[in-house]
Predict the 3D structure of the following.
Amino acid sequence: MAGPDEPGEPMEIEGTVYRPDGVTPAAGVVLYAYHTGADGLYAATPGPPRLRAWFRTDPRGRYAYRTIRPAAYPERRFAAHVHTQLWSDNVPAQWGTDLLFAGDPLLSASERRESEALARFANIRPLVRGAGGVWRGVHDLRLKTTGDHFEDNTRHGLQG
């Protein structure tokens, strides 16, 4: 998602997408992820986010990406996060859980409760700094049986 010259701290996320039963890996699902840059902005001008990418899960439902650790929005009302959207020929387009980061002082009490309720699919995830200073984390996702409505300004994953 982010090139080697992108300002910010490098981050690698991996995970598995599961069917709604929470047990069966979902192969061939498109995962679209996007987030802000180190400045807390999606883009310098109106349009789709600058830091975004599409992935297809492997036969075991796995995915991985390398980017930078996103920053909170400039007004700092919301914790830093990575948005996810998912779909395939057999999966209706839907929002996945936003990836949030453990220890972020901007996390709200309701975000903490909601993440805790997701049990093994909790979306507030710890990051561990690994070799070369790269932040690493895991974000498993569970599909829903129904799709979601996407407003025009969030359809950029579906429209390309």
